[in-house]
Automatic annotation (TrEMBL), chain A:
This protein's UniProt keywords: Signal, Transport
Gene Ontology molecular function: peptide transmembrane transporter activity
Sequence ranges assigned to domain Solute-binding protein family in this UniProt record: 98-485
CDD domains: PBP2_OppA
Entry keyword Ubl conjugation: no
Region annotation (Disordered) ranges: 25-53
InterPro entries the UniProt entry points to: Peptide/Ni-bd, SBP_5, SBP_5_dom
Name this polypeptide is given: Peptide ABC transporter substrate-binding protein
Gene Ontology biological process: peptide transport
Segment forming the signal sequence: 1-21
Gene3D superfamilies (alphabetical): Dipeptide-binding Protein, Domain 1 (3.90.76.10), Dipeptide-binding Protein, Domain 3 (3.10.105.10), Periplasmic binding protein-like II (3.40.190.10)
From TrEMBL, chain B:
Family under the similarity heading: Belongs to the binding-protein-dependent transport system permease family.
Keywords linked to the UniProt accession: Cell membrane, Membrane, Transmembrane, Transmembrane helix, Transport
A Gene Ontology BP annotation from the UniProt entry: transmembrane transport
Highest classification ranks of the organism: Bacteria, Bacillati, Bacillota, Clostridia, Peptostreptococcales
Name of the protein in question: ABC transporter permease
Short name of one Pfam family: BPD_transp_1_N
Cellular compartments annotated: Cell membrane
């Protein structure tokens, strides 16, 4: 009797658990009707098949990881930025370094450079309501408001907008120099003339968000909810499935909708490299980011595949000397270590288009004379190959450590990652062979590493910096005294003075100050520059017209799929 | 029996509380926090973020607040995926994981047990050797290798299967095979060895001597007893498999629960770490309870612990 009762209970439990799973099945996004999630159900090259089936031009794009947020104001990551650039549009849009009018039809800078006035075109949100200058004011103040706690709020300090840096630190939002003169005129007051301000405003943090949407849900939840995700860019969100992907369709209310050729975009969140690469190879994806490109394939792709693209990225990979330690006090030692590295060998081994770095500012910044800052500044006597080794040996001997004798063993620290490990092993070998220095390698999980580095609990540690606006100042300023990102704990009053002066100047004067600052940095060498970053991607030959910003955000507003 | 269940449920609740305390303190012990970024967040914004999520309260208060939410099944907001709650992460991820997991479990039990029984009956035959070699391979080859190989050949080279996602019946094949590989092999080996042991028992000889049909001897007496160790393994296995595998879900780009176990730790997403840990623990304990009930049904010698 007891047994029968038990069996009954068991059956009931099983049945109810089945029912539970059955229930959730209907809610499960993966079971959405095929009409809304077209194509990847087909067997052969579905992307192509589907296009012909219903005549719609849908691009399949691997975004990479599931973005933490796609609310422009809250976002702080590049994958989120890539999505936002398709769904929103700021005052201007930047493609390949050229600034195009966006929601602003035109703008003018006052003679003293302290007032920028934007004249907005008649444009609409994706729900058809009018978009005005007030929306920009709302959105920007939301970004500065400490209550919003936007990760990127610090960028306001570099905009030089009156009162914005104070607002970020809790000052009044009413004192901020951003004003809607009328529905279509936006006035921005600056503390100091800022040449890069217009192009900077194409960055995702400055794109407009609609107050009624934002306030309808907590903490940026609106941006992933198709019902609330009202945007103003070439595309709008129609579905978002956690961990799986999102769907965008052309936004008919976009002011430039006539020039948007794609009917929609299916974005996928495939973070496994081999899976994304394979799906691209079999035609299931049209566009894949660096995360989907296997490192081992890159040399072959560079050599053979016209659909593989490499672009410079505005940033630098380097090592920090912990300047609080006695061992690094002699600049001859720091220079010896810097010269002992064969940067060309490292970039050739990594083989992803990186540029050997002899300075901190990467290629891509034009100075007042239109010359590339990187080229004009030269190499500071730091060869990119191994021809500096003799000088390095001499310097180390002069410092009292001939052939490395007597110099303490030190640890090279990096965050756990295959590429960081490879670079660390190579420089370990170069220090040993070229200078006779013994080193140990240590890696830490990245969040731990961040803490260690910040606490100055290291001897030599990996560093990397990418900038978000078109001025070398954004890079050089991190080594000013007390800067939150000054990991080597470098301090030079002259350097600090040059940087603070450069923030207040424009044109030739501005760049001369920055050239001088980098001279100091590369003479005193608180860091060992290794290489300048690169960005890579693969795009199907059928996909044309796509673009990217120099800061590395993809742009499909003008993309088109050929038959 | 009612007291038995009551005892079990009380002990489950106590276990969950202990687990939350351990997980909570461990997660706050490791360096880094939910807002540690490649580019460090400036101190003033970090303060604003911590205030927003009440991370500036003393830890015991934070723990009590968390437990308050847990009682009402409110697992809190995810710290890294802004605007998403941990409840949403679990309810959106679990169905996908459970669907693959359930299919994998059916495959494992439906195939693994018969294979083990047949191998045991035909011990030392060619079939036995063949099956056991395959099973050894299944145990030793990691699931990401199986998964990547399936994608490479069946979706890449042959184009038979979709390369990612779970949007068609065919898409389930890859993840289910990759997920079952290890357990399928393990179960068939386990069934085989346990069957071999049972077949040597006196009561089997007696049953045969009594002239009971061979099929009946195997099905009624041998298999039933041989399954006890298998059932012990299957309970926790179901809990593990249904809550998703990080590796398999990553390789096949399945929007499941498994990835949150690993990603939440990398992101120091405290609420998600707690949420998935509690979910998994509760699920695991329920499966173990079901196993204990199953023992009683299979083996009449086992009784609920009333006599203790």
């Amino acid at each position: 009797m007891k047994k029968r009762l038990l069996a009954l209970i068991l059956v009931l439990i099983l049945a109810s658990s089945m029912a539970l799973i059955g229930c959730s099945k209907t809610e499960d996004p993966t079971d959405a009707p095929p009409a809304e999630t077209p194509s990847e159900t087909e067997e052969e090259s579905p992307a192509e098949e589907e296009d012909k089936d219903d005549g719609l031009s849908i691009m399949y794009w691997n975004i990479g990881a599931d973005p933490l947020t796609i609310d422009p104001v809250l976002n702080g990551a590049s994958d989120g930025g890539d999505v936002i650039n398709q769904t929103f549009e700021g005052l201007v849009r930047e493609k390949s370094g050229t600034v195009y009018p966006g929601i602003a039809e035109s703008w003018e800078v006052s003679p003293d450079g302290l007032t920028v006035t934007f004249y907005l075109r008649e444009s609409k949100w994706s729900d058809g309501s009018p978009l005005t200058a007030h929306d920009f004011v709302y959105s920007w103040k939301r970004g500065m408001d400490p209550a919003t706690a936007s990760e990127y709020a610090w960028i306001w300090e570099y905009t030089n907008v009156v009162g914005s840096a104070e607002a970020v630190n809790g000052g009044s939002l009413d004192d901020v120099g951003v004003k809607a003169l009328d529905d279509h005129t936006l006035e921005v007051k600056l503390n100091t003339p800022t040449d890069y301000i217009v192009s900077l405003l194409s960055f995702y943090h400055f794109l407009p968000t609609k107050q009624s949407s934002v306030e309808a849900g907590p903490d940026g939840a609106w941006a992933k909810d198709p019902k609330l995700a009202i945007s103003n860019g070439p595309f709008k969100l129609t579905s978002y499935k956690i961990g799986e992907g999102l769907s965008l369709v052309k936004n008919e209310h976009y002011w430039n909708a006539d020039n948007v050729k794609l009917d929609g975009i299916e974005g996928k969140f495939i973070d496994e490299t081999a899976t994304g690469y394979q799906a691209y190879q079999s035609g299931e994806l049209h566009f894949i980011p660096p995360i989907s490109i296997p490192a081992a394939e890159v040399p072959r792709l560079i050599a053979e595949d016209p659909n593989f693209y490499v672009f410079p990225l505005l940033g630098t990979y380097y090592y920090n000397f912990n300047l609080d330690l006695d061992m690094w006090q002699d600049v001859r030692v720091r220079r010896a270590l810097t010269l002992a590295i064969d940067r060309e060998l490292i970039t050739e081994t990594l083989a992803a288009g990186q540029v050997p770095a002899a300075g901190f500012v990467p290629p891509g910044f034009l100075d007042a004379d239109g010359k590339d800052f990187f080229e004009t500044s030269g190499n500071y006597g730091i060869p990119t190959d191994n021809s500096g080794v003799e000088e390095a040996k001499k310097l180390l001997a002069e410092a009292g450590y001939p052939d490395g004798k007597g110099f303490p063993e030190f640890t090279i620290m990096y965050n756990t990652n295959e590429n960081h490990k490879l670079v660390a092993e190579m420089i370990q070998e170069m220090f040993k062979t070229n200078l006779g220095l013994n080193t140990k390698l240590e890696n830490q999980e990245w969040a731990v590493f961040q803490d260690t580095r910040k606490a100055g609990d290291y001897e030599l540690s990996r560093g990397g910096w990418l900038t978000d606006f078109m001025d070398p100042m954004g890079l050089l300023s991190i080594f000013t005294t007390e800067n939150a990102y000054n990991d080597p704990n470098y301090s030079n009053p002259k350097y600090d003075e040059l940087l603070s002066k450069s923030a207040l100047t424009r044109g030739k004067e501005h760049f001369d100050l920055l050239y001088e600052a980098q001279d100091i940095l590369m003479t005193e060498l608180p860091i060992i520059p290794v290489y300048h970053y690169s960005d890579m991607m693969m795009a199907s030959p059928k996909l044309v017209g796509w673009d990217r910003s120099v800061l590395g955000t993809v742009d499909f507003s003008g993309a088109e799929l050929l038959d | 029996m009612a007291t038995y269940f009551l005892k079990r449920i009380v002990s489950m609740v106590v276990t969950i509380i202990l687990i939350t305390i351990i997980a909570f303190s461990m997660m706050h012990t490791i360096p880094g926090g939910p807002f540690t970024r490649e580019r460090p967040v400036p101190p003033e914004i970090l303060r604003a973020l911590e205030a927003k999520y009440n991370l500036d309260d003393p830890l015991p208060i934070q723990y009590l607040n968390y437990m308050k939410g847990l009682v009402t099944f409110d697992l809190g907001p995810s710290y890294s995926k802004v605007g998403t709650t941990v409840n949403e992460l679990i309810t959106s991820g679990f169905p996908s994981s459970a669907k693959i997991g359930l299919l994998a479990t059916l495959l494992i039990v439906g195939l693994g047990v018969p294979i083990g029984v047949i191998s045991a009956l035909k011990q030392n035959s060619k079939l036995d050797y063949f099956v056991m070699i395959i099973a050894t391979l299944g145990i030793t080859v990691p699931n990401f290798v199986i998964g990547t190989a399936i994608i490479y050949f069946f979706s890449g080279k042959l184009g038979w299967l979709p390369g990612f996602g779970l949007n068609s019946p065919l898409a389930y094949i890859g993840p289910v095979i990759a997920l079952s590989g290890y357990s399928l092999s393990f179960i068939s080996r386990l069934t085989r060895s346990s069957m071999l042991e049972v077949l040597r028992q006196d009561y089997i000889r007696t049953a045969r001597a009594n002239g009971i049909k061979e099929f009946s001897v195997i099905a009624r007496h041998a298999v039933k007893n041989g399954l006890i160790p298998v059932v012990t393994y299957i309970g926790p296995m179901i809990a593990t498999i249904l809550t998703g595998s990080f590796v398999v879900e990553r390789v096949f780009a399945v929007p499941g629960l498994g990835r949150h176990f690993v990603e939440s730790i990398t992101n120091r997403d405290y609420t998600t770490i707690m949420g998935v840990t509690v979910f998994y623990a509760a699920f695991y304990m329920i499966m173990v309870l079901l196993v204990d009930i199953a023992y009683v049904i299979i083996d009449p010698r086992i009784k609920f612990g009333e006599d203790k």
